[in-house]
Amino acid sequence: MSETGFKLIKESFHGLSKPLEALKGQEKVMIDTVMRWSAINSGSGNIKGLALMEQEIVHAFAPLKADISFIDLTPLERVGLDGNIEEIPVGRSILIRNNPGANRRILLTGHFDTVFPPDHAFQNPKWLEANILNGPGVADMKGGILVMLYALMAFEASDAAGSLGWEVLLSPDEETGSIGSAPILAERAQKAQIGLTFEPALADGTLAGARKGSGNYTVVVRGRSAHAGREFSKGRNAVVVLSEIIGALAALSGERPGLTVNPAVLSGGVAPNIVPDLAQCRFNVRLNKPADVAWFEAKIADIIAPWQNQEGIEVRLHGGINRPPKAITPAGQLLMDAIKECGALWGVDVNYVATGGCCEGNNLAAAGLPNVDTLGVRGGEIHSAQEFVCTDSFVERATLSATILYAYSKGYLDPILEAEHS
């Protein structure tokens, strides 16, 4: 029994026992499906591949007989090599709804884009060993979508079917920061009382607790071109100005506990004998606490301000904090405790660890929705060609999430709702 008072007894879940028993026979189907999905390149921005995955998902969720709709997303704005803004199409989100008028409402979120573009060498799944499948998206998070789906099917086959209002929101742009889907995540979070997100757990089953916030920026410096020999003094070197700005940005790391600034992608200049009139740097910041956001934005403004008055120099900043830090609220802690109890019913040890990574759980938390965001498969090495999933975790994790849904529908998690509104 947790210190917060949850005491879930296995006998109280007898109405879920037959669906969970049937779920055990679905492991091969789940593995076969994730292998097929993994071979579909759905890298962020690959509209054709995302559309193929969309069709697969709609077909897979059809047995739930829920309402399925699509939400077109605003294109992603990115600074091009010429320093100007360009728009990148990102696709559309899938919204699957069931029983929206129910008193108890839960939001399940995930994404079907990956970090691997069509020209990446990593395109197909393969077995590494008996229980380890390597492939793009097998863990992050096509495998997580399958966990979500089979948990819902088990729940709807239980005696609690129809008692819960649930929504599934699947996004095509999570790996680029959920810029287009962020307003949709916030909107749907307002309609729910609890959130579950299906990013992968660690290989040992550990889930994420608190998360750092993240922001992506591009600083663009425009100067004045000139011949480096004949008219050097007439030039205004954008690369030199940018280098000083980068140094000041990097110096902010550690100025607040856990805050890091990572200048990462640079461009500028055309030839050594030309004073460069354009330079830019893309950088990322990670922050521990919500209060760090305003502090960091003020520091950036202070760094850039002196250059705005320099003759022949123009500095512009693009981007911002796209995922605020996810702190653990009292209601969030209760949800974490309840999920640990749900796992204990079936011998699944659930533990949590704070992480510097970000996901849609940050967005849901910022909207005030208590959520746990690593309920997908066990796996690892995500965002690399070594990405893998532990295939014995498909049924295990679907069982855990079906139990959460059932416990919520039966009122066993009501302390979470009371804490949320206290």
- State mean pLDDT (0 to 100 scale): 95
- Strands in their spatial order, largest beta sheet: 1-4-8-5-9-18
Number of strands: 20
How many separate helices?
A: 11
Low-confidence stretches: none
- Measure the end-to-end span: 23 Å
Topology:
Layout: H1 14-23, H2 27-38, H3 47-61, E1 67-72, E2 76-79, E3 85-88, E4 92-98, E5 105-111, E6 126-129, E7 132-134, H4 142-156, E8 165-171, H5 182-189, E9 194-197, E10 207-211, E11 213-222, E12 226-227, H6 238-250, E13 260-268, E14 274-275, E15 278-287, H7 291-304, E16 314-323, H8 330-345, E17 352-355, H9 360-366, E18 371-372, E19 379-380, E20 388-390, H10 393-409, H11 414-420
Helix pairs in contact: 1-4, 2-4, 4-10, 5-9, 8-10, 8-11
Can you walk through the features of this model?
- This protein has 422 residues and is an alpha+beta fold.
- Helix content is 32%, strand content 25%.
- The chain is built from 11 helices and 20 strands.
- The radius of gyration is 24 Å and the shape is elongated.
- 48% of the residues are buried.
Gist of the model:
By secondary structure, this protein is an alpha+beta fold. Helices cover 32% and strands 25% of the residues.
Main features:
single chain; 422 residues; alpha+beta; six-stranded mixed beta sheet; four-stranded antiparallel beta sheet; 11 helices; 20 strands; elongated
